[in-house]
Amino acid sequence: MKLYIADDEMDVREGLKYLIDWEKLGFSFCGEGKNGEETLQDILRLQPDLVLLDIRMPRLSGLEVVKRAKEADFPGKFVILSGYSDFAYAQEAMRYGVDYYLTKPIDEAELEKAALEVKESLLQRQKEKNTFAQYREKAKNTILSDILLDNTNYSFLDLKDLSLEASAFQVILYSNYNQESFHAAWDFASILRLANKNQNSLEYIELDNRNIILLKTPFALKRFQELLKHYIAQPQKGSPLDTLFLSYGRCVYSVQDIHLSYEDALSLSKRRFFCQPEQHVLGYEVLPEQQERHSGFSRESSAYSQLFSDYIQTGNRTLLSEALHGLEQDLYYSTETVSAIKRYLEDLLIQVKAHLTHTYSSTQIPFPSNTAIIDTIEEQYYLYEIMHFFHLQFEMCMNALGAYSSESVMDSILSYIRHNYRENLRLESIAPLFGYNSSYLGKIFTKNVGQSFNSYVDQVRIEASKEMLRSNQYKVYEIAELVGYKNVDYFHKKFKKYVNMSPAEYRKSLFGSEPSA
């Protein structure tokens, strides 16, 4: 605490300095005055906590010093020093808020007691002031939180008291760029305050464990955009900004609309999953329009798994890449949570694995276990990481199936038919997989194979059915379905056409009877 001594006699001033151990009491000497005018100027400038003041001073009396200091809202304490004959003056000074009156010659014990009581009073006032400031700050944060959540009666707000008398607002959320970090995020609010030359241009709030900044002047909004353009969007490696991830909402122009900017920033912070590599910022400009969003998923995972399986088997990397991009776009516009999207992708990849390993049961395809697929996808923070994982798995599959080294497209087509004869194979659906239209593919197929597409498919199916008939494990109607014929009568017709006998006759020729149920 600071001590100021004022008396027109130097000996008195020096004596007061050493009469008691001021340092031990917690006071440090900050100045002295020899007349009232000088004393008034000093105490208003130095703002001491305690002033020892002689009541009789040249130029301005001690009484006038006290009066003018109090009128200027001086918060310090006064101890009046006077002779016995000045008691009437002392009484008047007490009415101006003087705390103690001591007569000369000053008694050491009385002075120390007065100093201690002043100190206790000052400490109590500071404690009350700090407590009030804490409650005020807490109340302000509560009000700001309610404004962000649009949960307040705006007509009762004192915008001036809240320092919200501004013409523009914008909300920013920030967190660690490294999502595995448990350390507190770098204090971006302080960075912005420094950039704004410490003007009262922003508020910092913590809400639901989120770091929130409310910019509240056009200058602050403009300064943020400048920082965004030059330093934040592509921060220097190793800099504080390189450790941060930001999302910011739209600019709004009334307190009642602040919640809209917050909702933008909050939605964006939840969409970090869709960020690209090294992307540190998401702005309201990239939020999908509401009419573009769709609940659920635009395609069942089984539809995508069939598509991917077809492109992998045909080695069509172009269409495979396009399909993966289409999947990524579908997910971008979905309103589903990140957890739901991950489960969808896990299911999709497991379905592709099941389809290919079943179709190519004799080929070793290097798929991870289902548990490894789930764990790998769950561990990723971004969609692009999962899409990269899909690319790697699909490329390994194509390499294992030899789709990349077929001697001709026709070899790939024949291989595809031999492995997928159980499906509803049609020229119209297969042709695009290999980059042809169905009419042209039908012509070159017949020319190269010596029979039509449908005839070749029937032949493959009949050969497979003969193998099953020889195994003596299935009934004829079961075999019909297993080789791709939904109608058992149609299967009979085709079988007889190619084998010159019915399936039952063929089996009887081998075993003498149908298998028992």
UniProtKB/TrEMBL annotation:
Response regulatory domain boundaries: 2-119
Highest taxon, organism lineage: Bacteria
Localization per Swiss-Prot or TrEMBL: Cytoplasm
GO molecular function: DNA-binding transcription factor activity; sequence-specific DNA binding
GO cellular component: cytoplasm
Coiled coil: none
Name of the featured protein: Stage 0 sporulation protein A homolog
